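The aim of this short unit is practical: by the end, you should be able to scan a pair of folded records and say something sensible about each. We start with the first protein, listed as its amino acid sequence and then its C-alpha cells.
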Amino acid sequence: MKLPVLLCLFPLLASSLTHWVATWSASPAPPMATEAEMRTAKLLFENQTLRMFAHTSIGGGMVRVRLSNVFGKAFLKIDEAHVALRDKSPNIVQSTDSVLTFSGRKTISIPPNAVVISDPVPMKVPVDGDLAVSIFLEKHTAAAGIHYAANATSFIGEGNQTAAASFVQSTTVASWAFLAGIDVVAPALAAAIVAFGDSITDGSRSTTDANRRWPNILAQRLQKAGITNLAVIDSGIGGNRVLHDPATPANMRFGVNALARFDRDVLAQPGAKYVIILEGINDIGHPGSQSAPPSESVTAEDVIAGLTQLAERSHEMGLKVIGATLTPFAGCPFPGYYTAEKDAIRAAVNQWVRTTNVYDGFVDFDKATRDAAHPDQMLAAYDGGDHLHPGDAGYKAMAEAINLKLFRPTKKSIRK
C-alpha cells in the first residue's frame, strides 16, 4: 500500500536533484612550433597574471572552473587562480572574488595533456553574463590549452593580481590560454548544446568582445523562449578540418582534426545532450591554397564519411545530433580556396545533410545566409567581408534559422 505513495513522491525528489552542466567552453589547439613564435603571440608568461573573460549561457548558484594543460609539453604550475564577476574590463566586482582551489589546494601542477577541475565555489552566476578567471604564473611558462582566436580580449599584468579589483595591465592578447571551461550546478533536466565546428562557429569576423557568434545568439533565443535549462557552449576552432591536422607547424592554431578532438570537445562536456555539427568547408577549401597541399584534397564522400563517424560516436554516448549545411563561399579571396569544383563538393555534402537519416535533424545555414539570386554567394548584408565568414548580421541569421523544437525530447527525428 505504500508503493503508490512512494511513486507519487518520486517526481518531487527528482526535481530537487542537480548536476554539473557546462555553461561555457573553449576548444584548445597545439602550441606554435618555437618559443619565439609563442613570445610574438604573447603566449609566454613569467611572474604575470593572465585575466580572461568568459561569457556564460545559463546561470547557477555554484561554479567550478576547468584549467587545461592540453598539448602542454611539461608540467604546468598554476600558482594561484581566482574567479569573479566582471566589472568594466579589465576589472572585477571585488565582492564576488573567490580563490580557486584544486583538491583543497591553492596551487596545482597539471601534467601534460591533462585537465583539472576546481573545487566548487558558491557564486550567483548570471545568465548571459561575464565571469573573470585570473591565473598567476610565477615561473617561465608557455601557454597550453590555447584557443587562439577568442574574439575576446584577455589581459596580462605584472605580478600576482589575481585578487585585484582594478587590474593593472601591461598588454592584451586576443586568445584564451589554460582556461578550458566553466560549469554550473543546474537542475536535473538541464543540459548543454555543443556547437561544434570551425571559424564560422568560432565567430570569426564578428565584433570583438560583443559575443555575437551564432552560438551566443542561440543561447539568447533559448532564454527568451523560456527554455532556461539549456546551455550553449562553443567548440569551434578557426581553420579546423574533419579529416586532417594542420598541414604546417605555422597553422597549429587550426587545431587537430575533428575526429581526434571530438571526445574532448564534445563528448566529455558536462551535461552535453545535443551537438550541432558545422564542419567540412575547410576540408574542401584548404587543399591547394596556402593552408594545405593538393594531396589533401577530399571528395564529398570523404567528408560525409567523417561526419558520419562524428554522428555515430555521439549516438553511442546518447547525444542527439543536428547537422548543419555549409555556407556559401564563392568570391573568397584566399588564393586557391574557392573553385567551382570545390563548390560542387559543398553542394553534395549539403544535399546529404538535408536528406540523411544519420542525423536526428538539420539546420539549413546555407539557405539562411545565401544570396537567392546567386546561391553560391553569401548575401552581401550577411558577409563579414571575405565572402566566407558572416558578419554580425549573418551570425544572427544563422542563429535564427535554428528550429528550437530540435531541442525537445522526441522519439522521431525532427527535420527542418
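Turning to the second protein, read its sequence before its C-alpha cells, just as you did above.
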Amino acid sequence: MTERITRSTGRSRLATRLASLLLPATLLTACAVPPQQPSQPPPVIGGEVAPQGSPQQQALRAMAAAQNRIDRVAAPLLVNNAALCKAHARKLLGFSAKNKYSYSPDLADVVQQTFGYGERLQVASVLAGSGAERVGVLRGDILIAAEDKEIPPGEDAERQAAAVLAPLVRGRSLIKLTVERKDIRTSLVVPLTQSCGFSIDLGNADHVNAYADGRRIVITRGLLDFARSDQELAYVIAREMAHNILGHTAKQRMSATMGGIIDNLIRFTPDLDTMTGRSGITPYPAELDAEADRLGLYLAARAGYDIHNAAAFWRGLAERYPVSVANGYTAIHPSSETRLAAIEKTATEIRAKKAAKRALTP
C-alpha cells in the first residue's frame, strides 16, 4: 500500500522492489496530483479537512488521500485471492515503509514537515488482514532491524532494506522485526502474509484509464474520480489484476509499452504529452477482455465485494467515455457488448455458487 512521490523512474523501481517484499501496493510512493488551486476545497483525509499549507503540502495530502482509498479497496482483493494469483502470489510482511528520501529530493524537507518522515524508514500503512496487522505493527513505527540485521537509514534506505529483507523472506513464515515506537524499541514476530504481489498505484493524470504491465497496476486520478464508490473501484482493480494474472499484456506483446506508461504516470511530473491517443497500446481483443471480466468478477466476489452492479458500472463508463475518447478506458477495451455479456453470465454463475455454498473458483 503506498504513500509515495518518486524522484525518478529509477527511484520508483527501487520502491517497487521494496514494496514487493513489504506490501503488494506501495502507499504514497508512486505519484502525485498537481497542486490544488485556491478555489478548490481543502483535501479531506480520514474524514477531516486537512490544514492548509504550501501548494506542495496540499498536493502531498491530496495524493495521500487518493492513494489511501486505493490501498483500502485493494487490500481484500490482494489478501483473499492469493490462491488465484498463481505465479504472482507472494509472502509479504504486510506493510509499507517510507522515509523522507522516498520522494523527490527537492521535496525531502516538505515531506518531513507534512508527514513526519525522517532518515529511517517508517511504517506508512499496514495491510488490512495481514500478519503485520494481527501482531500490532502500527503506522509510524520506525524500522530498526529484521532478524537482528540492521535496516540502515538515509537516502539509500529503500534499496538497502530490500537487500536485507529479500533473503529473509524466502523460506520463512515468520520474521522478527525490531521497531521503535515513542522512543522505545520493541520486537514483534510478524507472520508473513500470502497475497497477490501486485503494486497498485495512483496515476498522475486526469484521463480516465487504468494500466497493467503484468506485475503493476496504475489507476489514473480521472478513473478514481469516476468510480464513485469503493465497490466500483474494486471492479476496476480486480479487472486489472485479472489481466496480470492471465498474462494478457505479454500475449498482446505490450508489457514494455504498458511498463513505460506506468513508469511515466507514477512520476512526480509525468510527461503528459506522450499520453495522447492510445499511447501505443493495441486494443484488447474481445476474448481476452471477456476472460479478464470473468476472472475479475470472481476476484471481487471472493474479496467480499457485491458484484450486482458491475455490468451497470462498466456500461456507464463505456457510455460516458466511448471508443472515440482516444485516451479513455473504452478505447483500449472496445468490445463493450462482449464484455457486458461475459459480466452478466459470470455474475449469474457466482450467485448460483453462493446459493449452493460452493467454492467461488472460476
